Each structure stands twice: as structure tokens, then as C-alpha cells.
Amino acid sequence: QVQLQESGPGLVKPSQTLSLACTVSGRPISSGGHYWSWIRQHPGKGLEWIGFIYYSGSTYYNPSLKSRTTISVDTSKNQFSLKLSSVTAADTAVYFCARTLYYYDTSAYFDHWGQGTLVTVSS
Amino acid sequence: SYVLTQPPSVSVAPGKTARMTCGGNNIGSKTVHWYQQKPGQAPILVMYNGADRPSGIPERFSGSNSGNTATLTISRVEAGDEADYYCQVWASSSVLFGGGTKLTVL
Lengths: 123, 106
Hints:
Chain A is mainly beta. Chain A has no helices and eleven strands.
């Protein structure tokens, strides 16, 4: 059974870079067949996709966040990571990582999720 | 840009049928997925590719999609079905979620 676990600072100062990692267990990321996503949820609000990555390093980003987002993968650690730069209070959210099935420019969905981690942006 | 519209809330008595809609321009031409999220928990996939149930999801859950509306139907609703439900599609080279529907079991 695939399991995902987010980790990283729970508090980030405005204008700094938010950095999170997602550790995958139960399946090597390098085995392919799935993409690996970051999704966030503002307090009391709905879900917002940030982007996803394939083990090869190929990435897709939400156009609204693309300029500030970098997703990377470390197959040796079976991890993938999120960096979101120049954060403001509007980036305060619960950040989820998720395993993703992606069919080129047709469909994508998330079949396994991490528990989520709250990141607060505040000085 | 493409928009998914969900009613904010749906209420149903136990044992009855709940229907949660997801509206979008010609959504019937898209592949729709649905998630259930209970308070303080991560979402879980309850329907994919419109009408396919992941393993472990009861047969009471079903999905349909036609025209401008996709629907997640829960038959014989139980108290444990109370949650937020989100529809999701791929559109404009991006993942889009609906705003979510809170299902209340009376």
C-alpha cells in the first residue's frame, strides 16, 4: 500500500521560500506509471492544485502559481519536493502531496494522499 | 478559463439518495473525478473516470456525466457519508477543482 508523508516547516516568514518534502513508501517513485502532485487547501476553503512531477523530472504547474513554484524529485530518497517562493499570507494553507494518474492533456486524478501539513506564513 | 460549479450544500435523510452536481461548460466531454473529505482529513478518491469506483468504495456510490452536469449519487445514505465532496477535471492544461459541496445527513 502506497503511503505519502509531508514534512517541512510549519511557519514561514513573508517573502521567504516555502519548502516541503513528501516521502513515499510502499512503491519506488522510479518505477514509473504515476506522477506526484502537490495540492493545497486554504483554511476553510476548497482544493487548489499546485503541480506535479514524473520521476524523470518532467513537470506540470498550475499556471496561476507557475512563476513561484518548483517541484523536484529525489529518487534515491523516494521523495519529491515543493518550493514556493516569495510567499505571503495568502499562501497559508494545508499542503497535501498525492500520487497522480495523468493521461496526457486529457485527465489527471489523485488516488493516494498524504495527511497534509499546515504551513502558516507570518512574521 | 474553465469553471466548475458545485452547490455549497446538500441535505438528505439517512437511507435516502443524495445527488451532488458539478456544472461546467460541456463537462460531458471531460473526464470527471470525485473526492470525499471529512473534517481534518485528507481527501479520498471516491469516483474516477466519471463512473469508476476505487476499491473499498461502496457500491452505493455512483457517478454520471452528460451535457453540462456531472453527478455523484450516493444511495442509502449513512451518517458516515457526511463530508465535503469535490469534483475535479483536467482543463486548460491544468487540474481544476469545484468549490465543493457539504453533504449533511439529517
